[in-house]
Amino acid sequence: MKENEGILIADEDNSIRQKMAEFFVAQGYQVETTDSAAQVLCNILEKKAPVLVLGSDFDKKVAPDNLVHLLKKCNRNLAILFVSDVQAAPHDLSAEEPCFAPAAKPKVTHEIEEIQHAIEGALNAFKKLLRSQSQQPTYPHS
Helix, strand, or coil here: 42? Predict the structure, then answer.
């Protein structure tokens, strides 16, 4: 398993979740899948996965842009890959959120491989962030 390389896949479509999970597990990633907004929130609060693959039709009760803003408040270092049948991010979130990227919802394996490139970039950024945070000097309390 790849250390610090957890992926949470949240999508209403079970077949999409399963296809992506099988692909990423075979690549050595730690993968969790869900169709539950409560489980996504708990996972993000516990900082279990640095990358969230979020389906556009994941939760009909919460607008995707509202959910993204809430999740980023819970974990500002979370990288979110928004997958959709439509190639646009909701309300241009990608411009507002530095760790946010839109992607086409995968239908075949080569499209999942394209998502893998975005995930690898997000994980590399996460590792770089962890390294920079560990190199920050700590000061004793006065």
Answer: helix
Burial 103-135 (b: 16+ CB within 10 A, else e): bebbeeeebbeebbebbeebbebbeeeeeeeee
Residues 113-137 pLDDT 10s: 777 777 777 777 777 766 776 665 5
Report the distance separating Cα 57 and Cα 85, nearest Å.
Answer: 9
**pLDDT, position 68:** 83
Full-model pTM: 0.73
Nearest one of 27, 66, 34, 69 to 48, comparing CA atoms: 34
